[in-house]
């Protein structure tokens, strides 16, 4: 086998051993870890964002938890290596129901949730006021309607095929009705409608809002007016835009069907790439959520102080550790071996007071016994 031509993708005939037995379960496990952490963060409400961002983070976690995990299991079960274990009624249809009925609906709903959060950010930045809750509710309802309209036909089609194949009820009115309704023409219409409502419209809205916010906060003074929650929303929106663009392109290529060019035919069933893109989105969302959590940042700074603090790392780290040593900024400063300890007492005070000789003259110490003066690091308790 030529290693240079070894594809890490799914083909129509099956999958390679590395793709299905190694990479796909790893994607599922990584998705489980990332999205459980995201759910914990959203549940604890320690993320400094607005309610719409909480909903978005929770939706992203549930989406990738269901979509990537179940799809990874489904790909593994449908592989050639594991096909001998499963009979004709293997549970692949269940994973497709989960994918189309729940996963994609929440996925496209998340884009509209994030669009609502960005609209709220624009209102707060430009008008210094809060957006009406009714406007955010309208955007959320648009997302719900988009998810229902775009995914219900596909879910019905899967149900029709399942009934037709398993029960062989060709005379059933539901099968006849859906077979007429979901022919090639109607299927193409619903596929393009789903792509437009789920990917294209949120991409255009979020992209235009990010450009609008970027043009408004070009100066440093205006950027300082943007609070931390709004910056978090902008970071999440930029991450969603970057990861959603290749998903939208793959969706458009799949909607072309047999009419697409030959060089695009290899993207016909590239589900592994989709899972990797979604995993990168969930991991990036987790990274942004962790570094906007003040408790996590405090723990991170205590462990790795030099990363966020820069040049003042040593001084601030000593302060965080409770070391209140004050280093005297004096020329010819001589550091002691253990600055945290108390400075040694002056030997002049430890000796007995200077005596008098028989004639009443003061007895002075010999010059050779005098030690040169040194400067020590003096803790604040001794000042």
TrEMBL record:
Residues 338-367 are annotated as: Disordered. Keywords: Membrane, Transmembrane, Transmembrane helix. SUPFAM superfamilies: Family A G protein-coupled receptor-like. The keyword Transmembrane applies. The chain crosses the membrane at residues 20-42, 54-77, 105-123, 135-152, 189-211, 232-253. InterPro entries: GPCR-Ligand_Int. PANTHER family: FMRFAMIDE RECEPTOR, FMRFAMIDE RECEPTOR-RELATED. This is Uncharacterized protein. It comes from Dimorphilus gyrociliatus.
